[in-house]
């Protein structure tokens, strides 16, 4: 698996419509903590969480999606299951991300 880049509202809607567990990383290119956590998401997508779909959205490139998600700080990670938001994690917190992924995979 890999981390896919969301480039439009339509792509975001399509990703949510799939229904399986997904995590969206709302980030900015100028955000230091975003750069630090990014490799960890790639690692998660390639190891223990291959059954989860990983996405990222640049809040400056796709502000419509950032607004729709209610992003106020970066990085923010939002988990969706069956198209509905199930958990939000604000900040670069690998342990919280891992715990949320494990909780919602069950």
Per the principal axes of the C-alpha atoms, what is the gross shape? globular
Question: Can you name the CATH architecture?
Answer: 3-Layer(aba) Sandwich
Helix content: 40-55%
Structural class call reads alpha/beta
CATH class: Alpha Beta
Mean pLDDT: 95
Number of separate structural domains: 1
CATH topology: Glutaredoxin
The largest β sheet comes out as: 5 strands, mixed
Relative strand content: 25-35%
Total helical elements: 4
Tell me what the structure shows.
The chain is α/β, with parallel strands linked by helices and 106 residues long. The protein has helices spanning 9-17, 32-46, 63-69, 94-105, and strands at residues 3-5, 22-27, 53-58, 76-81, 84-90. It has one domain: Glutaredoxin (3-Layer(aba) Sandwich). A five-stranded mixed beta sheet has the order 1-3-2-4-5, sandwiched between helices. The longest helix has 15 residues, at 32-46.
């Amino acid at each position: 698996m890999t981390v896919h880049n969301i480039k439009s509202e339509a792509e975001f809607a399509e990703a949510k419509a799939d229904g399986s567990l997904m995590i969206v990383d709302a980030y900015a290119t100028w955000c230091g903590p975003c750069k630090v956590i990014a490799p960890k998401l790639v690692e998660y997508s390639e190891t223990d969480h291959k059954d989860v779909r990983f996405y990222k959205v640049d809040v400056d490139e796709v502000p419509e999606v950032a607004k729709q998600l209610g992003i106020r700080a970066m990085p923010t990670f939002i988990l969706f299951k069956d198209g509905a938001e199930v958990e939000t994690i604000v900040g670069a917190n690998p342990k919280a991300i891992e715990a949320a992924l494990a909780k919602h995979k069950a």
